[in-house]
Design a protein that fits this description.
By secondary structure, the chain is of the alpha+beta class. The chain is built from five helices and four strands; from the N terminus they run H-E-H-E-H-E-H-E-H.
Amino acid sequence: MVSKKQKKQQESMNSRLKLTMKSGKAILGYKHTLKALRRSKAKLVLIASNCPQLRKSEVEYIAMLAKTPVRHYSGDNTALGTACGKFFNCSVLSIIDAGDSDILTAETKE
């Protein structure tokens, strides 16, 4: 059972993500996210809840080396892909430019 607070946070995250996809720049996918982290272009990394543990730990480790914050998306990879406005699953997403969205600053407050 999902509480009202968790549902509200999920909806606010989805709206921020939608605005980022519209006005900013984001990269979907595991391999492209690792490349962006190695080049220090990623400003934030989102990982879906059902991402495999080995892949999740690898992304977290490389993000730690790149000093990039990692956020765990509460939905699964289907919900993350849908929140981005895509019709496919996405387990890892990196944000290069937030655009008009406050996703980079708002996530540290919650």
